Amino acid sequence: xxxxxxxxxxxxxxxxxxxxxxxxxxxxxxxxxxxxxxxxxxxxxxxxxxxxxxxxxxxxxxxxxxxxxxxxxxxxxxxxxxxxxxxxxxxxxxxxxxxxxxxxxxxxxxxxxxxxxxxxxxxxxxxxxxxxxxxxxxxxxxxxxxxxxxxxxxxxxxxxxxxxxxxxxxx
Length: 171
Fold this sequence. Notes:
Elements: H1 2-6, H2 51-73, E1 82-84, E2 92-94, E3 109-113, E4 117-121, E5 130-135, E6 141-145, E7 149-154, E8 157-162, E9 166-170
Antiparallel strand pairs: 1-2, 3-9, 4-5, 6-7, 7-8
């Protein structure tokens, strides 16, 4: 009964076997006499990449990045008539060659009123004269901004609304 409570923890004559060849191990021997001691783990090299290999990999990444940038920005490398692009200062773009491509807009910004009523004011202040009131969902065009206000145009009116009144979405 004491064996059942303690379990089989007191068994000292339990037979052990080699994990590789499955031969029974002699008592008190730490490894199989047929297979020998286990091999130690192989040393990992402490050296990283050499300077030349590092330079080559960085150069390859820079060339790949440049190729992607040239492709995505549609930069013409063969045209000599150049003018600075107003959208991307410092980037040259071809002008007057007749080869200009139409720029495709990948996204659209949609701005609309998110509160039930938004007061369009003459100046960016609660004390500014109310020019008109816009209803929820009215679409507006943003012209300028300051700390807490958007200068907008909606329905022919230009004025200021609180930044808390407007939802900006990019699609």
